[in-house]
Each structure stands twice: as structure tokens, then as C-alpha cells.
Amino acid sequence: MAVSVNDDCRDLHFRKAEFDPEDCPPDCSKPCEKVCPADAISLESIMVGEHTQSDPLHDKLKGGVLTERCYGCGRCLPVCPYDRIRAVSYVRDPTTTSELLKRNDVDAIEIHTTGKGTDTFNTLWNSLSESINNVKLVAVSMPDVGESTVDFMNALYAIMEPHIQGYNLWQLDGRPMSGDIGRGATRETVSFAVHMASVSERPPGFYQLGGGINSYTIDCLKKAGLFQSTTFPGTATSETIGSHQTLIGGIAYGGYARKV
């Protein structure tokens, strides 16, 4: 099992949509419900009132966001014709997370960072350092922040290195939570990987693609020369493609996996 945390409330992975269905006009076409990839919005019309002159029957919407299903993609925010939906962001409590890491069933921790600076990451890491060795894998998920990306990653690795005894992994979050959109989303993720492949001073660890992953990703990786298939004993021979094939150690199917 993996535990996810964030070092900044601006991280898109740690937010939920929220609105009061009683604020919605009863005749709303409910585009938020249609656009949600996780089926996390459920609205239905009900009749309320006493069927009297002073309190006549009228339509009203009930339901709203199913918090346990919402993963914060934000698709509903711009489509609301009445601008009633808001995003509520939060930061996972590091003390609670530290206690979770001491459990026998937690194998990995995924740390989301926005790439805005190392101070918040350092604060979070220090609060977890006493329990971080209880996990086998430390994964850092981050976006491409341009020319400073590799320097930022190396700065993060310098913070983590004294306390890591297991494996570490970098999740290249090309276009967060957009895998169900289409080919354009995965191009950004693969471009991030191509950028990393061209840099020799990147920090050690496994590299995994995330954000924008879908059915086009493998083909895009092959065209970029970044895909390697592995043959296991008793299986057919596989073909190795590309000169940087060892860079990508895995693919994280998020939003696309939820859709299928």
C-alpha cells in the first residue's frame, strides 16, 4: 500500500470540488454531472413543499459531490453556468502520515510537490524522516518547471539522500489528471521524459511517467526512443527500442484508468 502526501496546498492532487445543490437552479442542465470523469457528481430533482397556497410544491436539486470519488481534476469548475462550484484544497497532516508509515502494510510513500521551492518540501521531509525508513520506496511526483527542473530535483535528492535506505522514484507529472483527455495530454508527459533523457546530471532513482497517461502513451514513447520491453522466462522474445530505453522505469495510469 502507498500513502500520498503533499508539501503545498496548491497541488492539484489534493483538492475536492464542492457546491451546495440547493444553490443550483432546478432547471439547470447539470453540465458538471456530464463532464465528471469519475462520476463523482450526482444530482436529482425532487418535489418539496406542502402543495398549499402558502407553500406550493416546487422542484429542488439534491445530491452534489461524492467526496470519496472526486479526485480534484477540476473539469466541473469552468462548465458551471452559475459559477457555484469551488475547489477546496488541503494539505495532508505530516504527523498522521508519519504514524501511518510505521504500519506493516505501508510499502511506499508518494510525495507531491509543485516545484515552487524546496522550503516546504524540506519541512515535510523533516517531519517524516524518523519513519521514512519503514517504507521500501519513496516516490516524488512533480511537474516540469522548465530549465530549473533538474536543479530542483537534485536539490530535493540532497534533502532526501541521508534518510533513504530503500528505492527512490521520480514521477514525471507531465499534465496532471488529464490521461482521459487524449493524445495531446500524453505528448506533454513524453516531452517531459525526453527532456530528462537529454540531461546527464539528473538525480539517481527510477523514472516513471504520470499525468496524461493513456492508450497513446506507449506509441509516443516508442517514437521518442524511450520504450523498452522486457522478456521474462517462459515468454516470447521482446524487442528493445531506442538509445535511452533504460530511463523510463514505469507508467502510472491514473485518470485514464479510472475512466476505463
Automatic annotation (TrEMBL):
Residues 15-46, 61-90 form the 4Fe-4S ferredoxin-type domain. This is 4Fe-4S ferredoxin-type domain-containing protein. InterPro entries: 4Fe4S_Fe-S-bd, 4Fe4S_Fe_S_CS, Fe-S-bd_prot_LdpA_C, LdpA_Fe-S-bd, PSI_iron-sulfur_center. It comes from Panicum virgatum (Blackwell switchgrass). GO terms for molecular function: 4 iron, 4 sulfur cluster binding; metal ion binding. The keyword 4Fe-4S applies. PROSITE patterns: 4FE4S_FER_1, 4FE4S_FER_2. Keywords: 4Fe-4S, Iron, Iron-sulfur, Metal-binding.
